[in-house]
Design a protein that fits this description.
alpha/beta; Spore Coat Polysaccharide Biosynthesis Protein SpsA, Chain A; eight-stranded mixed β-sheet; 12 helices; disordered C terminus
Length: 383
């Protein structure tokens, strides 16, 4: 599975090379599936899982016929025990979060790294059907305090997304953003687009932003500081805290913001301190590029690819927020998953070899990352 995707020719030349693009697409879709089919969500359940599942259902059905009261009591008792154990675990994690916290990096510390010592950075921005936010994306990227010669921003679009492509071409001339068109192929997901983009990424550190994000201008420098100064050398990823800039749109956006506040402010730092697997967010996670290549990057058939990749990876959390936009417009709407279409059933377990540093640093205008700490990857036998 380990394979370098680092481009060996100029990106502009590779974007015009149809053979290279075709091979990059094949690798983006099939790399993990060919290396370990059981770790891919391309098939929701394998044969053994189906046999076990249907056998259990059959046994329960038979027991319900002959021992309905006892069976119901056993099922309810099992569910209650599982719920109580989960609740107790959540309370312990919640308590540890604010006590130990995430990583804090001051503005002075973030700016203390000389420009010549900063690594090359690639920002992947997968988008689909979002022409209205392309201009905001460029404006947000222009606020990033990072040497322009070391910063690469790849806007990942689907080839048949004409409205967004047209809007993107209008801003590409400024030289900050490079448009990468992903050939149409299933699955139409954000992780597939990110995998494809990795073949054009020149950075030593890779991060993901959504097109509507408003990142903290120092977020990249904070992530570099955390990765360079972590006491745990196994830490290879930093996760920024997420929040929303349209909190007051309606009641649902307020609830959604409160949920994110608890998740990124208390639970993820608690998981980090507990050295538990940390499910990453879908944006503002900063990876060491060589680790992504070693583990096969993202699972293209899994639209919870962020949680899949973070599960079992040593992770640390920072305190600054990345402001994004809540997509809860109506009670019937759901948050967009970027390039993802319909969710695919997931069963891919944690993949070994990566470490995550979850930062409370938000993509927002605030910029005070938390104290660095890392959770260690739990041992994983399967990829």
């Amino acid at each position: 599975m380990a394979r370098s995707t680092r481009p060996r020719r100029p990106v502009a030349e590779l974007l015009a090379d149809e053979d290279y693009r075709a091979e990059a697409l094949r690798d983006a879709v099939d790399r993990l599936r060919e290396a370990d089919a059981d770790m891919s969500a391309s098939v929701a359940f394998n044969r053994i899982q189906k046999i076990i599942g249907f056998t259990l259902l059959g046994v329960i059905a038979v027991l319900m016929v002959f021992f309905p009261v006892g069976t119901c009591a056993a099922l309810v008792s099992t569910a209650t025990v599982a719920y109580v154990v989960t609740l107790a675990d959540r309370l312990v994690i919640f308590r540890r979060g604010p006590v130990n916290g995430a990583i804090r990096v001051s503005d002075e510390q973030a700016r203390s790294i000389p420009d010549e010592e900063l690594p090359r950075y690639t920002v992947l921005v997968p988008a689909y059907g979002e022409p209205e936010v392309v201009g905001d994306l460029v404006a947000a990227m222009e606020t990033i305090e990072y040497p322009r010669e070391k910063l690469q921003v790849l806007l990942l679009l689907e080839e048949d997304d004409e409205p967004t492509i047209e809007a993107a071409r209008g801003v590409e001339a400024n030289g900050l953003v490079t448009v990468v068109l992903t050939p149409p192929a299933q699955p139409r997901t954000k992780p597939k687009a990110c995998n494809f983009g990795m073949h054009f990424a020149t950075g030593d550190i890779v991060t993901i932003f959504d097109a509507e994000d408003k990142p903290d201008p120092l977020q990249l420098r904070r992530a570099v500081y955390v990765l360079n100064n972590s006491d745990d050398e196994s830490v290879v990823c930093v996760q920024g805290k997420l929040s929303f800039h349209n909190v007051r749109d309606n009641m649902l956006t307020e609830w959604f913001t409160a949920d994110y506040g608890i998740w990124f402010g208390f639970l993820l730092p608690g998981m980090m301190v507990s050295r538990a697997p940390i499910p990453l967010g879908g944006t503002s996670n900063h990876f060491k590029r060589d680790v992504l290549d070693r583990i096969g990057a993202w699972e293209p058939f899994n639209v919870t690819e962020d949680a899949d990749l973070g599960c079992g990876s040593p992770t640390t959390v920072t305190a600054r927020s990345c402001w994004t936009r809540s997509r809860w417009k109506r009670p019937t709407s759901t948050p967009s998953t970027g390039c993802a279409s319909d969710p695919v059933g997931t069963r891919a377990a944690c993949r070994p070899g990566s470490c995550t540093c979850v930062t409370r640093s938000s993509c927002g205008t605030s910029s005070d990352p938390l104290r660095s700490s890392a959770s260690r990857c739990s041992s994983r036998a399967r990829r």
